[in-house]
Design goal:
Jelly Rolls, 6-stranded antiparallel sheet, 5-stranded antiparallel sheet, 2 helices
Length: about 210
């Protein structure tokens, strides 16, 4: 009897630990649509379906051909309560030719407007940036490195509350241009053998 009780308590502890571990497992939501827009002569061109699979961010407050802003759309209708949220993106940062030590700063804005489509969004018809959620500084790197950008949970909950059917937009912007630029892998990116890169942006909730 004593052995049975010991076994029972041991199993109960294991089950409790397993349930707790599963409950704390982050929920991952991949980007639903992604695109970047660019000013100048391409202000009316939709660049979201480019074969290069690159999303560019640079000099976002301008309006010339080097003024680029990235738009990420997420479907969060199945997301309920959460305490933390992180944006995960695969980023390459190109150094400034003027100052190789300069860092790239990216602002993340939130918008409950998710009516845009990646095959139609342009510089001239893009939605507004909305409220700034956070910013992140990056050093130049030669590879596409995964980075995690923490977003305030309360701000994300506000976006979800104001959204239609749980679809929200995150806008990646470079407001303080210092001749650096960034490139993010999009969900359309493929390797040289034609296979999908599978390094698209995603949100992680916990």
């Amino acid at each position: 009897m004593k052995r049975l009780l010991t076994t029972f308590f041991a199993c109960s502890i294991i089950l409790a630990f397993t349930s707790s571990t599963l409950a704390n497992k982050p929920v991952k939501v991949k980007v639903f649509q992604d695109a970047f827009v660019q000013g100048g002569g391409t202000a009316d061109e939709a660049l979201g379906s480019t074969t290069s699979g690159r999303l560019r961010v640079m000099k976002s407050n301008g309006d010339d051909k080097y003024s680029r802003t990235t738009y990420l759309q997420f479907n969060l209708k199945k997301i309920e309560d959460f305490k933390t949220v992180d944006l995960n993106v695969c980023v390459r940062v190109y150094p400034s030719k003027v100052d190789a030590s300069a860092s790239f700063t990216m602002q993340v804005y939130g918008n409950s407007d998710a009516k845009w489509n990646e095959s139609a969004i342009t510089f001239n018809n893009k939605p507004e940036k909305g409220e700034m959620l956070t910013s992140k500084e990056f050093k130049a790197n030669d590879n596409n490195d995964w980075v995690k950008i923490s977003i305030p949970a309360d701000a994300m909950k506000k976006l979800l509350k104001n959204s239609k059917k749980g679809r929200i937009t995150l806008v990646l912007s470079n407001d303080d241009f210092n001749k650096t630029s960034a490139e993010i892998i999009s969900k359309e990116r493929t390797w040289s053998n034609g296979s999908l890169a599978k390094r698209e942006a995603y949100l992680s909730f916990q």
